[in-house]
User: Which sequence fits this backbone?
């Protein structure tokens, strides 16, 4: 299911999002703006997370797509 509101669409995480998410989770500038320090994540760990995570009533992770890119 896609959730659309104005120019934004919320959608489940897909395999095509791997490169973006992998670069973001290991980016120290992004880390400073979020929850603080974490351990570096390997490609294996990121793929394992993406393969095994399932949205449910307690946990949900979505990608935000904007019409203008």
Assistant:
């Amino acid at each position: 299911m896609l959730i659309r509101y104005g120019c934004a669409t919320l959608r489940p995480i897909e395999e095509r999002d791997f490169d973006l998410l992998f670069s973001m989770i290991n980016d120290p500038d992004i880390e400073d703006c979020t929850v603080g320090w974490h351990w570096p994540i390997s490609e294996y760990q990121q793929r394992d997370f993406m393969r095994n995570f399932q949205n449910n009533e307690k946990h949900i992770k979505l990608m935000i797509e904007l019409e203008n890119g």
The first strand starts at residue 3 and ends at 5. The beta strands are 3-5, 8-12, 62-66.
